[in-house]
Structure formats: C-alpha cells, structure tokens
Write a structure and sequence with these properties.
Layout: H1 2-11, E1 31-36, H2 40-48, E2 58-63, H3 70-80, E3 93-97, H4 102-105, H5 113-117, H6 121-124, H7 129-133, E4 152-157, H8 158-165, H9 170-176, H10 180-192, E5 198-200, H11 205-209, E6 217-218, E7 221-222, H12 226-241, E8 244-247, H13 252-256, E9 266-270, H14 271-276, E10 289-292, E11 303-307, H15 314-325, H16 328-338, H17 345-352, H18 367-374, H19 386-401, H20 407-421
Helix pairs in contact: 1-3, 16-17, 19-20
Amino acid sequence: MKKFIAAALAVASVLALMSCSKAKKGTDGKVLNIYVWNDEFSSRFNNYFPKEKLGDVTVNFIQTPNANNAYQNKLDEVLLGQSKAPADEKVDIFLVEADYALKYVDTNYTLDVKKEIGLTDADLANQFKYTKDIMTDSKGVLKGVSWQGCPGGFIYRRSYAKEVLGTDDPAEVQKAIDDWAKFDAVAAKMKAAGYYMLSGYDDAFRVFSDNVKTPWVKDNKIIVDDNIKAWVKQTKEYSEKGYNNKASLWSSESTQGMMADGHVFGYFAPAWFIDFCMPHDEGSAFGDWAFTKGPQGFSWGGTWICGAAGSDNVSLIKEIMYTLTCDAAVMEKLAKETGDFANNETAMKAVAASDYKNEFLGGQNHMALFIQSAASIDKSNISMYDQGMTEKLQSAMKDYFEGQVTEDEAWANFYTSIQETYPNLSK
C-alpha cells in the first residue's frame, strides 16, 4: 500500500504542486543527478555529449532496475522529497518509458520542454510525431524528449531462411510472413526443419499489445482488448505445437536461441534490441541476421528524457536535450555507429539513402523500413499502467502456457495480482 500511495501522489498533479516547480534559469548547480534504470542512456550521454559542455559539473547516474516497478517506486520517493532535498541531491533529469510515461507527464514534477527548458518548435521539428505525442500533457505541454524512435520488425536468421524458404532476402522473406496466417505456416515449416519460429512465450506480445484498440484502463476499469486475447491464443498454440522454445523474455534460454548454435528463427524487436540485447561476441550469430517488417507493424519501448522541476541545471538540461535529440549531425552519427534508430527524420533519411551497412544484419541497410513504420505509429491507446499490466499478464499466462493452470485460472490470477498492485482498479 505504501508503494501505491507514492505512485498515486506522483500521478495526481494537484498533489504534485511543489515549491520548487519554477525552473531556475542558468546552470548554477555543480552536480547533475540523472535517474535511470540501465546504462543505455549513460552510454549515449558519454559517447555523444561533448564533455567540454559540462564544465566543472559532476554527473551522477543513479540506477534502479525497472522490473517490478522498482525504478518508478524509487523515482516517486525522490520526487516527493524534491522540494526539501539539498541542492546537490535534487533530481535534475529522470528517464521514463512509454509503458508509464503518462504517469509523470501530467504532473508538475516535469518541466515544460519549451517554456521552462527553452527548446523551440524549430529545434523539435524533425522528431517523429508519436515521440512527442506520448510526452504531451492534457494541456498540450511537451514534457520530455527522446533520442530514439522504436518501430519494430522481425529479426530473423538468414541461414535458416535460406534452408527453409529458399531465400534470405528481406523483401522475399517479408512476402512469406506478411500476415499471421502465413507466419503460422512458416512456423510449421520451421518446426519440421528442426527450428523454433520464436524463442518463447513473450516474443510476439508487443506486436499484439501495440495494436490494441482500447487502453488497459478506462475509468479505473481493467479492459482486456481482443488483441491481448489473440496473443494468449497464439502463444498457447505455439507452445503446444512446439513452434516456440518455451523461453521467457530476457531469460538465458531466450538469449541462447540467438547464438550461432541456437535454433530460433526470429525475434520481434526494435533497433535497441539488436544493439543492447542480442549477443555480438564470440559464439554469436553475428552477420547471420536480417530485418523485415513481419505480419504487423508495431513499436516497442522508447526512453524519454525529462527535466525535473527544482533542478538548478536547466541550461545544461537544455544542452543535453538539444544535442542528443535535436542535432541532426549527432543523430546521424549515433545511428551509423550504434544501429539505433534516432529520433530525427532528416538524419534517418540521410542514413537510409547512404551506403550505411549494418554488419550484424549481414550488411543490410534497414533504416528505410524503420522510417516507414515510425511515421505511422499511434500511441493514443497507452495507459499509465502498461508496465504493470504487461508484467503481471505475462507472469500469469506463463503458468497457463506451461499447463500448470487453466486459462480461466490464469485470468483470475492476473486480476488478483493487478488489484494487489493497483488497488484503485477493478474488473
């Protein structure tokens, strides 16, 4: 209950009014505190933000894992105490994901990117629209910016495609899996050849969940969209037919399927998954991968930079936001060097039209596929509860996929766990 109260306070903008909500102008502080859940942003910051712009400011990355709402709980705690915290201990920047961005957007804990931090419409013009929509509050105020776009696709093994489908060409593979019926048919062929179409239970989840027609919660009522039910049905069938390896996302079994001796045909994922989650070292299948759209367009994740109200480093926050999310030259360099899909349409079109080759993907330039998807992403059906819903649903349904409970029992367990986490919600 204590965790829920902290979260509820962070959600309610009325309770979020703080004496420090007016941003100080200038870079007065000597310590910049950045709250994160992993090292993705710190690597981008260290590699692409000029150190000379920091002056004598010390940068602290305060990292708390994202799982089980741990990061949000920590963030809620420190933001609630922001007004009374010593200057060098105040939050200056914190990151949020799409799954819970709304929780912080409509509060006074986040600074207005334009009026308080100082970025202009011209600065932000080339960012993909959906990345701004997610961080725009109910009054039309932009509260955060991102350096990345996260359209997804299907990442597949070239050698297995050649063996089973007769080609590894992304355009031809796409023809073979461009709807779910065809995808299922290829899954059967892969099984017959000794391969798994997917690694496990959660691999296709984001494709289905990103295409829901209704948000998870409306008027404090839990809504299960038909697309979520379709994921459950497909995953149960794949588990029973041996089309997946019965692995859980982020497990060692899932990662093993990506290795050279792994037997998984493909993974649904965006660019960050390729760069941060797939093995690139000895024993990996480096170069034996390719990328195509798959049966349905989708996006997964994304990380946004928020300036915290009460920061005494607003000018530095502006420099960081501009350099890492608006500067086309930096965006182009980042994309070419890391394979990340940068949140700048001008930069990405330049990369797509260039001789850029992603060696991990066998020399493929896949950026044009990302650009097509990014322009069509619609995030109007997200909710502030998405992370919790996703984690609890996947956990409850794993027992069903493994035959430990019936589907009805799995749904009952899901609702129980959700209402323990969010007592304000009901069926």
